[in-house]
Amino acid sequence: MSSASPRYLFITGGVVSSLGKGLSAAALGALLQAHGYRVRLRKLDPYLNVDAGTMSPYQHGEVYVTDDGAETDLDLGHYERFTGVEARQSDNVTSGRVYERVLARERRGDYLGGTVQVIPHVTDTIKEFIGADTEDEDFVLVEIGGTVGDIEGLPFLEAIRQFGNEVGRSRVLYLHLTLVPYLEAVGEQKTKPTQHSVKELRGIGIQPDLLLCRCDRPIPESERAKLALFCNVDPGSVVPAIDADTVYEVPAIYRREGLDTKVLDYFGLPGKPAPDLDRWHRVVEAIRLPAGEVNIAMVGKYTGLQDAYKSLIEALVHSGVAHQVGVRVQWLDAELLEQDDPAGEAIATLQQAHGVLVPGGFGDRGITGKMRAIEFARTRKVPYLGICLGLQLAVVEVARTLAGIREAGSTEFGACADPIVGLMTEWLHAGTVETRSPGDNLGGTMRLGGYDCVIDPGTRASEIYGLDRVRERHRHRYEVNPAYEDRLREAGLRFSGKSPDGALFEIAELSGHPWFFGVQFHPELRSRPFAPHPLFTSFIEAAIRQERLI
Ligand code: GLN
């Protein structure tokens, strides 16, 4: 079912942040797909950064990289995982990018001497982004970052208000995600925060069409009626969104509450009487009732910040589902391994691990600890997966120990006699050479996005993938120095995946070890609940074998 021009769903958030607007948008998108519609999801982020690339994942969550090389908000990861629709650069727009475009036009003289203002110039530009780069989608779901009431969000809210008038209200739906908290002391659910949030939204000129209410228990009829009355919607438009055990349960929860039907009815579109959600149910069941469990030690700079490693955690969940096991991630602060006599607890975490994972990272903090964890996994024959920085450190570790290159290091951490890993100064991108030098800007200057990787036949990597060419997403500045390839190979480390021109090393595997891999790319960005990434499923399979050994 496709239509000449799409319908737009704008998703705003009220009361508090972290209500999960991104997940709501993703789950609703998946439900609409189950009815046979084509969807597109995008996010408007009110912050001033031009993109998420320069933002700390420890403050803002992971930087999600799209195939076309955009560094985006982590919500785009939810969108891709839930809908399988590949996100693009045009699907994440920040205030910074909007202003960048407006100011470039001003400098060019495009405004013909006019005064450049938030309304109409900034709002027009936001609307341009909302409507740009669509194909034959039936629905474009647009999430507005932040919470209603934030100063930064105002131009975006004004823009979506105008958009509704221009496109016509029959083609635009405003959905407001809010919180209906339960107050223990009085034993009641409270509607006032939602009333205030909707009042704020109406003050801007937006009357929400649907209220999606996060709650930890069902909302009684009386409270729904109250919400409807005060928020100027009919009671059927107040939809409870009860807390879920796993995010993959959300589409089914929305279905149960009839959110999909309400959306389709609003637009006067037909829906399937029983959209097929079986695969979602199967994933939820596998997560709820695993047949066993494996421990994966995740060795990072800061740990416990789940959002900083969102896609990675989800990729582990997906491969756990594939094997019907639960994957328990045990966070291990790399610095704890750096002391002369590492804390017993840190060592115990490694000893109980059925697999060790060193994820991507930047800077030199915790490097020695990460290398110790790698040495532990290598010498004790515990499955090891190194991602990006985790590959680079594994190569350095193997170089120092097995290849006897004592001074091996990465120039990211300072000059060294044997730069096994060094700054990448040029590489091929879509047939042209990209060059970088050490003093370049930090934003958007890495090797970013999807690149092909050619896999050597007869290697374990080719067995795992079952393919001789794959496409994986990247986000890095440093690379393995090919000058050391022969010495590393003699030591047992083979580069089984390379860029098509053979210049950049993408996959390393160690012989004589049950499962030891490093990858320069981020496989977690391509893992989906219904299509777990082969590297992760193979890693978890090795961890299951390890569990039986311990
Ligand atoms: N800091 C390393 C680099 O820039 C690794 C990056 C990463 O792990 N994403 O190459």
Task: Please write out the topology.
Blueprint: E1 7-13, H1 21-34, E2 39-45, H2 57-60, E3 64-65, E4 71-72, H3 75-83, E5 92-94, H4 95-108, H5 118-131, E6 139-144, H6 154-167, E7 172-179, E8 182-183, E9 188-189, H7 192-203, E10 210-215, H8 221-231, E11 238-242, H9 250-256, H10 259-267, H11 278-288, E12 292-300, H12 310-323, E13 325-333, H13 344-352, E14 355-358, H14 367-379, E15 384-387, H15 389-401, E16 408-410, E17 418-423, E18 426-429, E19 432-435, E20 447-455, H16 460-465, E21 469-476, E22 478-480, H17 485-490, E23 493-498, E24 505-510, E25 516-519, H18 534-549
Parallel strand pairs: 1-6, 1-7, 2-5, 2-6, 7-10, 10-11, 12-13, 12-14, 14-15, 15-25, 16-17
Antiparallel strand pairs: 3-4, 8-9, 17-22, 18-19, 20-21, 20-23, 23-24, 24-25
Helix pairs in contact: 1-3, 1-9, 4-5, 5-6, 12-18, 14-15
The protein binds glutamine (GLN).
Task: Give structural notes.
The protein has a nine-stranded mixed sheet with strand order 13-12-14-15-25-24-23-20-21, sandwiched between helices. Strands 5-2-6-1-7-10-11 form a seven-stranded parallel sheet, sandwiched between helices. A three-stranded mixed sheet has the order 16-17-22, covered by helices on one side. The relative contact order is 0.11. The mean pLDDT is 92. It contains 18 helices and 25 strands. Helix 8 links the parallel strand 10 and strand 11. It folds into two domains: 7-281, 3-Layer(aba) Sandwich (Rossmann fold); 291-422 and 478-549, 3-Layer(aba) Sandwich (Rossmann fold), CATH 3.40.50.880. The chain has 550 residues and is of the alpha/beta class. It binds glutamine (GLN).
